[in-house]
Each structure stands twice: as C-alpha cells, then as structure tokens.
Amino acid sequence: MDRERAVPRLRALRRPRHRRAARGLPGRAARVKPTRVTNRVRALRFEHDEMTQAQLAEHLGVTRQTVIAIEQGRYSPSLEMAFQIAKVFGVPLDDVFAYPEDER
After folding, report:
1. Higher pLDDT, 81 or 9
2. Gene3D superfamilies, per this entry (predicted)?
3. pTM across the whole model
C-alpha cells in the first residue's frame, strides 16, 4: 500500500515534458537562423551618452533580452520597432539597419 502512494508522488515531482518559450523570442532549444540584416544599435547606444540596454528596452517597451538579441543579430525587430529604434536615436532607419547586397 505504501508503494502505491509513493508512485503518484514521484510523478508529481517530474518536470513537464514541454519547454516554454520566452515571451517574444523562441526557446533556447529552437534553432534560430541568424538574420542577414545588420544593425548599429550597440554603437548608437554608446554614441548617445552610453545608453544601457535596459534604458533602450524601456523606451521600446520590450525586455532587455530582446535588445540583446537584436544587437547580436539573433532577432530581427518588426518594422514598427525598427522605426521606434531609429526615432529613439534621432537618425534615419537606414543609419540603424542595413541589408547586404547579393554577392552574385
């Protein structure tokens, strides 16, 4: 009888079998193809009184992790967010983001 009671307890202690994704970004287990779009977000932050990632995230209404992913090229922001980033720094959109020419 004690064994029957122990089995459900062990099942309750197991981890869930699914991974939850962070809000706005894929889970760590997912393979994300790096984007070809390059950006100057990090450089612009330092040119503007060394703005922190947290400060930029607050301006944009996103998490600091999202800003990190954008800077590292692991996440391409939406068109609206791209315009917001350019507006924060007071520069045209093409001063922040660039798409390389095809090398054919």
Report:
1. 81
2. lambda repressor-like DNA-binding domains (1.10.260.40)
3. 0.65
